[in-house]
Amino acid sequence: MAKRGSKTVFRSRDGSAIASNKASRQSNQIGPLNQNWPILPKLSSAQAMAVFSQMQFIERMSAANQKRLQLRQIERVVRHAHTTIPFYRHRIDGIEQIPVGELGESFLSSLPILTRSEIQAAGTRLQSTRPPAEHGRVYLQRTSGSTGKPIEVASTGLRKIISNAHTLRAYYWHKLDITQKFVSIRTAFKPGTEPKKASWSVIPWSGPSKRLDINLPISELFEQFIAENPAVVFSHPYTLMLLAERSRETGILPVKLSHAQSFGEALSPNIRQTLREVWNVPVIDSYSATEIGIIAHQCPDNEQLHIQVENVRVEVLDDNGNQCRPGTVGKVVITTLQNFASPLIRYEIGDYAEVGDNCTCGRTLPVLTRILGRHRNLCVLKNGERFFPEIQSHLKPFNHLRQFQAHQRSLEEIDLKVVADRPFTDDEKNEVQAIIQKKFHYPFRVNVIEVSDIPRAANGKFEEFKSDLQEARIDS
Amino acid sequence: MFTQWMNSDLFQFYQLRQLENLMRFAGGNSNYLASRLKFLENLSVGGLYAEHLALVPVMNISELQKNSQKLIVRKRLPNHGKRRMVRVNKSKSPPVKLMFTGLLDSWREALTLRSLDWHGSDVSTACLRIDRKPDREKSASRRPWSILPWSGRLHVVQADRPAREQLEELVRINPGSLQTEPDILQDLMKQADLHGIKPENLKEIRCRGQSIDLELRELTEKTWGVSIIHEYFVEEVGLIAIQCPSHKGLHINSEFVFAEVLDEQDKPCSAGQTGRVVVTPIQNFQTPLIRYDTGHLAEVGKPCACGRTLPVLERILS
């Protein structure tokens, strides 16, 4: 140990500094001598850790037991919604006739699907008149809304605790070193709301955390990201890819980075590959929504997603409203289990997902193989067929292409906005059209439109493909 | 949960700071301990290294029996919960009285959860414990066997009942987990083998004790198709080490106990060497046992391939 002014520095045998009194206090780590180790955490952190401990066992219990426990929790939510939320009073018809403890899957499946427009129209009628006091403070949560149509739900302190427990599960599964630095890149804090001290988990000796504004120009964001030099970065896949591409161009690497975590957009295999090539880091994907919280975390053994059954019941339904089998794709319908202030019961979130089979990792949590995107990301063909297009890998031969976004305007026409180092020649434009026609199996007219920038949505999300036709279908 | 993957340098740093906290507290609140921890007077705050421990005399069981009252710190610690006296019976020697706290109870539960987690236990099944302590059968009935809310019932059978009766209870209760000690299990297995009895639901056998013979492990695997999970438990200390889920060695619960394995010259043994197990439970501030010789021998293991940075004891010898 050496003393420098008022600062006490603790050193390892080789002389390198391990921690100091001052640094420990500043980074929210353990004070070397004034506190017990491991620390007895404050109540909300201890509750999150206790929930996380239970989740360690839930994820490996038999699927039947897991389902039984989940069903009892759903019953609590549904009965609470029926008695205290005006919006649900008539939607949950017939529940009074079901004896307590006997609400079953068939009753749940008979409840109507809740749409985004219904949530918007319901307003405060979707909020409980008597949220349980033991669930803590009730506050309003507003989605950022990629479509410009945000929704607002009430949430509780309990949901925050459960959410922290799920965050711990992801860190634990992927063995992230939480003593290191964490950077999240998302919408900026509102002025004056940035916490003075931020650490990236409820574990008392977590390392520091920094939030960067996703809406900054990419060059500025990249500079800040490199300056922070984190061990883990958390952002939307597209933003991660832009940062990695910037690293490739400049040769400047985030040298301490060990993992990237993604959320908010469908993660394509191309983006995983780019981050692996440029930064040599794996991407850990997650599936979540502001109005719901966590829906699924990536398995530590493969790229599939495990549904977080303690927080949500997920149904993946085909066009006839039947449950999809493993290997098939359907609409995601969610029931929230922990929000008693504004529970969402059979909410059609607008995403499509592929159902997975039992996971080889041994966890019994159900599996989604991949999230494909939202209704508006589906390309519609004249014969009624719909599919999620993947364009990026096909445009790789155009080295001068920096950024693009495809926009289906009609059944015949696609606009392709491009940001490029030089203008596209007529031959190149024809080549792009030919590629899209071949890959989409339809003779679309492709308008290549050169622009200086393609802005992301207000919430920082970016869509590689969107269709006006699907947008029109949802609105109707 | 997270400390098991922590960088080992950082882990050791925090563990030594906690050990120093304990020593300074003990030296400041007990004249007997102050005389054993004299070296602290010349040590700057935060300056304790593992090598300094050689300056503290090792305490064996007879010294503990003689001085246990002097070890107890009377000062009440606000965050350590309710205090209680515990009587520890050592074979062939008079019992020892120690003061335990509510905090230590929490540690016991936390380490039990760690063991259950590592070995993927299904706590929703029943558990049968064959216990040496008297009068446990009635008090334990209808109690869950872990703090997890969906835990199954704990059933207790006294170890002094004949093995044949213990086996009958095992068949009747049909538990998913059996908890006992190696010698009790040995007798039980003999009976089971003799009568060709196999408990249908049994998924795990947790053995708390010092050493587990290879023959006993093989016998349970052959007869019942169930593996033994070894937990190294010393009553006056707590759960010192738990068998790794990936191999037969044990990981020391280093957040709870500072363990040394010492050779005949009291020097720390390296991997592959066998020596005396000397422990300091770093969470018990009410009865600080500093460098307590458990009377057991252990072989030091290499860092484990499972990725956990907790130190390894390859095996415990009686």
Could you describe the 3D structure shown?
The complex is a heterodimer of chains A (476) and B (318). Helices cover 28% and strands 24% of the residues of chain A. In chain A, a hairpin with a 3-residue loop joins strand 10 (283-289) and strand 11. In chain A, the strands form five sheets. Chain A has an eleven-stranded mixed beta sheet, sandwiched between helices. The model of chain A is unreliable at 1-9, 18-32 and 472-476 (pLDDT under 50). Chain A folds into three domains: 1-37, no CATH class; 42-377, 3-Layer(aba) Sandwich (Rossmann fold); 379-475, ANL, C-terminal domain (GMP Synthetase, Chain A, domain 3). By secondary structure, chain A is an alpha/beta fold. Chain B is an alpha/beta fold and 318 residues long. Chain B folds into two domains: 3-107 and 233-317, Rossmann fold, CATH 3.40.50.12780; 122-202. Chain B has helices at 8-29, 31-36, 61-71, 102-118, 136-140, 163-173, 182-195, 214-223, and strands at 83-88, 96-101, 127-131, 143-144, 153-158, 177-180, 204-208, 228-234, 238-243, 250-252, 257-262, 274-281, 292-300, 312-317. Chain B has a twelve-stranded mixed beta sheet, with helices on both faces. Chain B has a two-stranded antiparallel ribbon with strand order 1-2. In chain B, strand 9 and strand 10 form a beta hairpin. In chain B, helix 7 runs parallel beside helix 8. Chain A binds chain B through residues 1, 8, 10, 12-13, 18-19, 30, 32-33, 36-38, 40, 49, 52-54, 56-57, 60-62, 65, 69, 168, 171-172, 175, 177-179, 203, 205, 362, and chain B through 1-3, 5-7, 9-10, 13-15, 17-18, 20-21, 44-47, 49, 79, 103, 113, 116-117, 120-124, 148-150, 255, 283, 307.
Q: Brief description of this entry?
A:
In chain A, 28% of the residues lie in helices and 24% in strands.
Give the terminus-to-terminus CA distance of chain B.
Answer: 30 Å
Structural class of chain A: alpha/beta
Strand order of the largest sheet of chain B: 4-5-3-6-7-8-9-10-14-13-12-11
- Described by the principal axes of the CA atoms, the overall outline of chain B is globular
Count the strands of chain A?
22
Instruction: Report mean pLDDT of chain A, rounded to a whole number.
Output: 88
Distance between the termini of chain A: 70 Å
- Major beta sheet of chain A, specifics? 11 strands, mixed
Mean pLDDT of chain B: 92
Indicate the CATH class of the largest domain in chain A. Answer: Alpha Beta
Oligomerization category of the chains in this entry: heterodimer
H/E element sequence of chain B: HHHEEHEHEEHEHEHEEEEEEE
Helix content of chain A: 25-40%
User: Radius of gyration of chain B, rounded?
Assistant: 20 Å
- What do we call the CATH homologous superfamily of the largest domain in chain A? ANL, N-terminal domain
